[in-house]
Amino acid sequence: MNAARKLTRFAERARFLKKYYFTSQNGIIGIPGSFCTMVQQPQRTHGLVKLGVIGAVTGTAVGAGYAYYKINEARENIALEGTQLETTLLKYKPPVTPSRKIASPVDATGLKLTLFQYQTCPFCCKVDPVLRKEIGWSSYKKVPILLTKVEGGYQPLNDSTMIVSLLASYLHDTSHKIEELANYYPSVAMHDENGNFKYEIINKYFLMFNKQLPKDRSMNEITEERNWRKWADEVFVHTLSPNVYRTLDESYRTFNWFSEVGQWKEYFPTWEQMLIVNVGATAMWLIGKRLKKRHRLKDDVRQSLYDEANYWLRAIKARGTTFMGGSKPDLSDLAVYGVLKSIEGCDAFQDLLTHTNIGNWYNAVKEQVETHSGSVNLSR
Ligand SMILES: N[C@@H](CCC(=O)N[C@@H](CS)C(=O)NCC(=O)O)C(=O)O
Ligand SMILES: *[C@@H]1O[C@H](CO)[C@@H](O)[C@H](O)[C@H]1NC(C)=O
What we know:
The chain contains 15 helices and seven strands. By secondary structure, the chain is α+β, with helices and mostly antiparallel strands. The chain has two domains: 67-212, Glutaredoxin (3-Layer(aba) Sandwich), CATH 3.40.30.10; 217-379, Up-down Bundle (Glutathione S-transferase Yfyf (Class Pi), Chain A, domain 2). The chain has a five-stranded mixed beta sheet with strand order 2-1-3-4-5. A two-stranded antiparallel sheet has the order 6-7. β6 and β7 form a beta hairpin. α12 packs across α14 (347-355). It is globular. 2-acetamido-2-deoxy-beta-D-glucopyranose binds at residues 85-88, 139-140, 156-158, 182, 187, 199.
């Protein structure tokens, strides 16, 4: 099982998931990369085992060796429970060439940021609107990662939600240093509800207001914003994969779109690109079915997508404002927008526009994001 998991993860990260990244010279933004499978939990590989994709690897010898290794690893992980990772600075910038640089004329933050991302990854797209953002140098292996230039080096920031919370906290009170704020968001060792070991930034949805609550916002609004951001990460995002990889045909179209947006033609030889699209589309179509079960989507997965979108829209309607954040998008608007932005070129997105009213809200956020890129006052 574990060998299988390793192989799957390897395949995921391997060449066919080409990454690119971005630098913002004096402020905000980044852009395209490629695609994100959005299958993060290890349990997903059990399906693949059944599919016999890697049956041969699970020989008994390997199995026994692995079992021993795993038992030890599990013991060590239990000993780690509750401990925090040190936040380390990089002395030098990793030698990667940005695929795009953005210098905003209206930036007043003085921030120098480099975003490592996949263009069509929902988590990455969440960071995109606030700012935007390759990773052999990092022991944290997911994207997005944001590199921020600080005194004496570069501070890597790990998780999309934490990145957004940290930057919003910084913009709220720029007297704080980024590296100080990073210490307020520690990665803590823990075991999740399935007993899997992981590091979690427990307070990642919280902004550090430093005793000065924003004057124009009620406690209730702040709490709501947090809950909706959580909903975007824990509920809404899970409706995507089963939808964009719903049928083999759809899965192919989705991959062709990734290939376009990620400019795979420029980055891979034709044969490799074909391999990626074919293997990727097929694998994700299969994995999509597992994810549908795991996240208990309806038989008609589109319906689940529409239902969640409508749940979101009803809440905005109840407020009587254009955005969840009022007359300007707040961080929850940006989170939901980011998630949807990652599937903009998919059939599922078009269907969502025809079957729900989300287009008005989506375009309104889009306009704000596009006209405010580089602005300090993005989330007010
Ligand atoms: N909680 C993380 C999730 C990020 C994530 O799962 N990123 C995917 C791409 S969409 C990834 O890098 N996966 C590689 C892996 O899991 O090893 C966040 O919000 O940033
Ligand atoms: C990011 O993750 C790496 C590896 O898990 C860790 O060493 C580093 O301290 C983390 N960064 C922050 C800011 O927590």
